[in-house]
């Protein structure tokens, strides 16, 4: 099956406008005849459901949480990008496009990324109209801050709660449509299969997580906005319920899975404290605006800190290694996430880590507190040489910008980050890979769409900070409602899709047989035993750095672990009842397949790019010595995997990437 990305012809800046001018439309009266299923109610799914219903389609929305407002988008902290150039610092649509392609290490599709940059400005206007309380400057205008990988301030934010506030905006838009009867909401329902009729996605099979009931739902098109698969690593910043099941079931029904090895390790997370943990906590990347990252210059100081004999505040300035500022003077602490994460790992591996495990670096706000304090003292005509006053005023400014993040850190770590530096370390956060989609956001299954983090997205091999919220809302509010209409224009005379057909019956039968097998397995080991084991394989062999030997062994180990899972897993309780362990088992079963494909994809891509770092592909000399080395001659393509049974048998399809508007060159943030 040839991959057709369906990129419109013409100049890059005109593609989206010309596309919208040429597509088929569905008139308002006919939209009432068409049903659309939206799975997932985060920023992508929620905004899509609300917009499609507002347009007049009949929407069925599904989430496994007890409310759409509990979608994991709520956890996003730092902000959302938009090319509005409010700061007058040189931002533009092209600059956002360029930063995104460069930040993704030149492994994303130009046309999609430019469209994302183009519609970004509309998102802010939409959200302000919904009442999202973005931060404002002294004059009342919307404020901006900078994020990693860019040289401008384009990130709109609401303290450290941006995801929550944006989700509440989408949720309120959804609620309006639920009240009108245009959205039928199914909370606590998990999608367990896609139903295809004559090659087209025409419905889904779900399980009611409260009653255990298996249900059939039909529609003229199915949209997946189900997030990423970071929990394949077990420990990640994702909510514990976040999973790959919906996307993986779609993959098994014919949707190609693209770039699974492109996983983002976020540099500013609270370090792992022990094997008892079930998830990790993110500290927003926005903190890197004002926090300076460092480790001791002397190993003996690092050892003394780890032993509890020395405090970080006792280390003199000249004995601190601000290693990002040293290695990347042009960007300093605001290098992209993959670069910052690898640099932290390198320092800790070299013996300069600062917590008991040796896997942490400092994120220090002392300089920012002093800078803000002096500025505020001048503004209020107070004594800028009074150290206590400056510290007090500076802390108040920092509290205004990041207060809830500091409070969260103190609750978890029991240290006051106003007085002592935060400790951070990289952790799995976001997945750039996902279901392959064309320019219309349609997968390789007709009528099946994937939006937000569920698709292989616009981020290439590494996502810039504050771009996840941008992509999710761009897809849901401004892209999918156009592109899906072109497809649905062929369905205005189709009529309702029946669920009493052999296709629905077969899909339901498959779901029931898997559930029966798990419930009646009578093994001896809990689901978490297998998930933790998988996570350790993934982190140790497919984590921040990868090599051929480890990846080959990971493929075999995961395959063996999957065999053991089906022989030894024990799922207590029944299938026709609330059974969270059963829900978890179904999700882990899919992670055990995805993990193998992940390792296979990483093994196939013998280059370093973005979040995918191969130890065999490193710059060996020159100013970039030690940095990731891309291979544009052999790997300028999207890996799209076709399901063929066992993940190790998946077939690779390549979407060659062409760059007509940006010159391919090795990234440098020095």
Automatic annotation (TrEMBL):
Cofactor: FAD
A Pfam short name: Succ_DH_flav_C
Active site: 337 (proton acceptor)
Domain FAD-dependent oxidoreductase 2 FAD-binding: 35-469
Predominant localisation class: membrane
SUPFAM superfamilies per the UniProt record, alphabetical: FAD/NAD(P)-binding domain (SSF51905), Succinate dehydrogenase/fumarate reductase flavoprotein C-terminal domain (SSF46977), Succinate dehydrogenase/fumarate reductase flavoprotein, catalytic domain (SSF56425)
Protein name (database record): succinate dehydrogenase
Organism in which the protein naturally occurs: Dokdonia pacifica
């Amino acid at each position: 099956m040839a991959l057709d990305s369906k990129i419109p012809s013409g100049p890059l800046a005109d593609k989206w406008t010309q596309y919208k001018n040429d597509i088929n439309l569905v008139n308002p009266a006919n939209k009432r005849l068409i049903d659309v299923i939206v799975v997932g109610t985060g920023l992508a799914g929620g905004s899509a459901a609300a917009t499609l219903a507002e347009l007049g389609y009949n929407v069925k929305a599904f989430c496994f949480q007890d409310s759409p407002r509990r979608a994991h988008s709520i956890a996003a902290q730092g902000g959302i990008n938009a090319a509005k150039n409010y700061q007058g610092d040189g931002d533009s649509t092209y600059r956002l496009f360029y930063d995104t392609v460069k930040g993704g290490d030149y492994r994303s599709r130009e046309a999609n990324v430019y469209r994302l940059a183009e519609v970004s400005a509309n998102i802010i206007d939409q959200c302000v109209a919904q009442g999202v309380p973005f931060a404002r400057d002294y004059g009342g205008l919307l404020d901006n801050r900078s994020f990693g990988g860019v040289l401008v301030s384009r990130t709109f934010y609401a303290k450290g709660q941006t995801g929550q506030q944006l989700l509440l905006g989408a949720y309120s838009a959804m609620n309006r449509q639920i009240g009108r009867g245009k959205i039928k909401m199914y909370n606590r329902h998990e999608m367990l299969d896609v139903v295809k009729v004559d090659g087209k996605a025409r419905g889904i099979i779900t399980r009611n997580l409260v009653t255990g009931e298996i249900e059939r739902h039909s529609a003229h098109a199915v949209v997946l906005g189900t997030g990423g698969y970071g929990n394949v690593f077990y420990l990640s910043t994702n909510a514990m319920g976040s999973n790959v099941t919906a996307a993986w079931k779609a993959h098994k029904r014919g949707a190609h899975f693209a770039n699974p090895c492109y996983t983002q390790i976020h540099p500013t997370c609270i370090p792992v404290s022990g094997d008892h943990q079930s998830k990790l906590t993110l500290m927003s990347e926005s903190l890197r605006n004002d926090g300076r990252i460092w480790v001791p210059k002397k190993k003996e100081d690092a050892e003394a800190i780890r032993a509890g004999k020395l405090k970080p505040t006792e280390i003199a300035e000249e004995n601190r290694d601000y290693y990002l500022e040293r290695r990347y003077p042009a960007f300093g602490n605001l290098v992209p996430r993959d670069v910052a994460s690898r640099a932290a790992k390198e320092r800790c591996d070299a013996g300069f880590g600062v917590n008991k495990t040796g896997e942490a670096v400092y994120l220090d706000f002392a300089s920012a507190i002093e800078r803000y304090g002096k500025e505020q003292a001048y503004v209020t005509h107070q004594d800028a040489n009074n150290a206590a006053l400056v510290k007090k005023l500076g802390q108040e400014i920092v509290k205004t910008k990041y207060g809830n993040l500091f409070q969260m850190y103190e609750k978890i770590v029991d240290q006051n980050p106003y007085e002592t530096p935060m400790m951070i370390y990289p952790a799995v956060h976001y997945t750039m890979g996902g279901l392959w989609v064309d320019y219309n956001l349609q997968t390789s299954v007709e009528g099946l769409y994937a939006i937000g983090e569920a698709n292989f997205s616009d981020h290439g091999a590494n996502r810039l900070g504050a771009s996840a919220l941008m992509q999710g809302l761009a897809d849901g509010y401004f892209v999918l409602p156009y592109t899906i209409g072109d497809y649905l224009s062929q369905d205005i005379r189709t009529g309702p899709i029946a669920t009493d057909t052999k296709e629905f019956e077969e899909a339901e039968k498959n779901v029931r047989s898997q559930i029966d097998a798990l419930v009646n397995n009578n093994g001896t080991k809990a689901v978490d035993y297998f998930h933790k084991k998988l996570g350790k394989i993934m982190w140790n062999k497919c984590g921040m750095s990868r090599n051929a030997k480890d990846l080959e062994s990971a493929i075999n180990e995961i395959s063996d672990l999957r065999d053991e899972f089906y022989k030894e897993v024990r799922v207590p309780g029944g299938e026709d009842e609330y059974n969270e362990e059963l829900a978890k088992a179904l999700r882990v079963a899919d992670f055990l397949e995805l993990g193998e494909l992940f390792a296979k994809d990483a093994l196939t891509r013998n280059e370093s790019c973005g979040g995918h770092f191969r130890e065999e592909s490193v710059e060996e000399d020159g100013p970039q010595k030690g940095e990731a080395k891309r291979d544009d001659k052999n790997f300028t393509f999207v890996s799209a995997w076709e399901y063929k049974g066992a993940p190790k048998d998946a077939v690779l399809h390549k979407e060659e990437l062409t760059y007509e508007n940006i010159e391919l060159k090795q990234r440098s943030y020095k």
